[in-house]
Specification:
The protein has 11 helices and 8 strands. By secondary structure, the chain is α/β, with parallel strands linked by helices. The chain has 2 domains: about 180 residues, Rossmann fold (3-Layer(aba) Sandwich); about 80 residues, N-(1-d-carboxylethyl)-l-norvaline Dehydrogenase, domain 2. The longest helix is centred in the N-terminal third of the chain and has 20 residues.
Length: about 290
């Protein structure tokens, strides 16, 4: 059994939230994307207009104006929270911030509204006691960039109802995404754990002076068919983000092996965060 979803609120208009909002609008949902910063909201709106126009030029969107008309951008999302059938949080990966957001949502949203967090590192069970209806909450993890990546991981917590799971699976499928449904929570879920194993091994190989980062990346691309090598991927995602994921897993599990490598920590300390900083494992200054 599913809940009928017509109106969706996405909280967080950053790189992920803005694209998740566009994915919902393209699938026919009336979608509001909210953030506390009007500057971020305005930048998100302009970027999504450009992205949807490009998709239309490629023949991937039939009616871009209809999709854009279903999108509302705001720095005051209280009314949208009251009206939403589904609320998806896509804020910064900080536990206390997410708890504050969900506590506010819980005050405003209808008791039957479905709540999802896009977090890839924080399981929804850590947010459940901040809301009044934890059975309506789960992880709904889109991948970056959400307009392109075909997968959504759905992760229930121990209190999540079957109706909630069925609803978020149905909504995800309507957007054209393939759903990966976990039976239970586990730190990092599936995709990140698989990829983290590759990234960690790549860093071990480099630290052991087995090969250069260029050759390790080439092996991943040419022999394994990966679209980019592990060091290229870390630079794209952000080395600070990769480090944060390690620290978050350590905090959740207490497993010393989850801590980031000294090499990665040194890069972050030097400000070599990847493409966004002009330098990471590679130099992008030229």
């Amino acid at each position: 059994m599913t809940v009928e979803v017509q109106r969706i609120l996405v909280i967080g208009a950053g790189a992920m939230g803005r694209q998740i909002g566009a994915v919902f609008a393209l699938a026919g949902y009336d979608t509001t994307v909210g953030d506390v910063s009007q500057d971020i909201v305005d930048a998100a709106r302009d970027e999504i207009r450009t992205r949807i126009a490009r998709l239309a030029e490629k023949g991937q969107v039939d009616d871009p104006q209809a999709a854009l008309s279903r999108l509302t951008w705001t720095s005051d999302w209280d009314d949208a929270a009251r009206e939403a059938d589904l609320v998806v949080e896509a804020a910064t990966e900080r536990l206390e911030l997410k708890r504050q957001i969900f506590a506010r949502v819980s005050e405003l949203a209808r008791p039957d509204a479905i709540l999802g967090t896009n977090s890839s590192t924080i399981p929804s069970s850590l947010l459940a006691d901040s809301i009044r209806n934890p059975e309506r909450l789960c992880n709904m993890h889109f991948f970056n960039p959400a307009l392109v990546m075909a997968c959504v991981e759905i992760v229930p917590n121990p209190q999540t109802s079957q109706e909630t799971i069925d609803t978020v699976v149905s909504v995800s499928q309507r957007t054209g995404k393939e759903v990966v449904l976990l039976k239970r929570e586990i730190p990092g879920f599936i995709a990140n754990r698989l990829m983290q194993a590759v990234l960690d091994e790549a860093m071990r190989l480099h630290a052991s002076d087995v090969a250069t980062i260029e050759d390790i990346d080439a092996a991943a691309r040419l022999a394994l068919g990966h679209p980019m090598g592990p060091f290229q991927l870390m630079d794209l995602v952000g080395n600070d983000v990769i480090s944060f994921i390690h620290h978050a897993e350590f905090e959740l599990t207490g497993d010393e092996s989850a801590k980031p490598s000294p090499e990665l920590e040194a890069l972050v300390a030097e400000g070599r965060l990847g493409r966004k900083a002009g330098r990471g494992w590679y130099d992008y200054s030229s």
